[in-house]
Structure formats: structure tokens, C-alpha cells
């Protein structure tokens, strides 16, 4: 365990020594001016259609209200389609047996005796 710690410490020291040997790079004298010119240029301040459309403060509440109304309508449409009636286990088994013709229904019994 201590060998690993020593090896790691040696590697860290060696890496730090390499970092001290690296020369610093000075930026060109006009670097700051070019960055400021780029930031102030009309191309950087120009926004696309969607960002301008959604940045209008009057439209944001209207869009949120539309989304809420759409969600409520969707919720009511889907909730009306489901039934709250519970089916018992016996009814499920009878329907399954009838579907796979495991038992004969009243109509099938009448046809047998006619």
C-alpha cells in the first residue's frame, strides 16, 4: 500500500516538474480587440426566429396557457375512454374459457340437441 502511495507521489512530482518547464504562451497583442469586436458585431447579436419569437414577454404566458389547455383536453379525452368497472376473476375465466372454447355456451348446447 505504501509502495503505491510512493509511486503515485513520485509520478505527481514528476508531472509537476514537467508543468514548470512548459513555457507560457503570450497572446497576440490584438487578441483582446478581436474578441471584443466579435462580441459587438451585428452577427453575434442577431437572433434566429425561434429565439426572438419565444423571447417576447407577452407571448410566454399565452404559450404556457395553451400548453396547459392542450394537456387538460388530452387528459379528459383519455380518461373518459377508460372504464372504472372492475371485472371479477370468475368473469375473466369464463370469458377466456369461452374464447378458447373450453366450455360450451348455451347457444352451442342448443345446437347440439337440435
Looking at the chains present, what oligomeric state does this protein adopt?
single chain
Residues in helix, %? over 70%
- How large, in whole angstroms, is the Cα Rg? 38 Å
Order of helices and strands: HHHHHHH
Mean pLDDT: 77
The overall strand count is 0
CA(first)-CA(last) distance: 92 Å
Largest sheet: none
- Uncertain residue ranges: none
The portion of residues forming beta strands comes to under 5%
Describe the fold and architecture.
The protein is mainly α and 114 residues long. 73% of the residues lie in helices and 0% in strands. It contains seven helices and no strands. The model has no long low-confidence stretch (mean pLDDT 77).
Give a quick set of tags describing it.
single chain, 114 residues, mainly alpha, 7 helices, 73% helix, flat
Topology (SSEs and partners):
Layout: H1 2-21, H2 31-40, H3 42-45, H4 49-55, H5 59-81, H6 89-99, H7 106-113
Provide a quick synopsis of the model.
This protein has 114 residues and is an all-alpha fold. The protein has seven helices and no strands.
Amino acid at each position: 500500500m505504501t509502495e503505491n502511495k510512493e509511486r503515485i507521489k513520485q509520478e505527481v512530482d514528476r508531472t509537476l516538474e514537467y508543468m514548470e518547464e512548459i513555457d507560457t504562451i503570450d497572446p497576440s497583442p490584438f487578441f483582446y480587440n478581436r474578441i471584443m469586436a466579435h462580441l459587438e458585431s451585428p452577427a453575434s447579436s442577431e437572433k434566429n426566429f425561434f429565439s426572438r419569437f419565444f423571447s417576447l414577454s407577452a407571448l410566454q404566458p399565452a404559450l404556457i396557457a395553451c400548453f396547459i389547455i392542450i394537456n387538460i383536453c388530452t387528459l379528459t379525452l383519455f380518461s373518459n375512454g377508460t372504464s372504472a368497472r372492475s371485472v371479477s376473476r370468475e368473469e375473466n375465466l369464463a370469458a377466456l374459457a369461452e374464447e378458447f372454447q373450453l366450455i360450451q355456451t348455451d347457444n352451442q348446447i342448443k345446437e347440439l340437441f337440435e
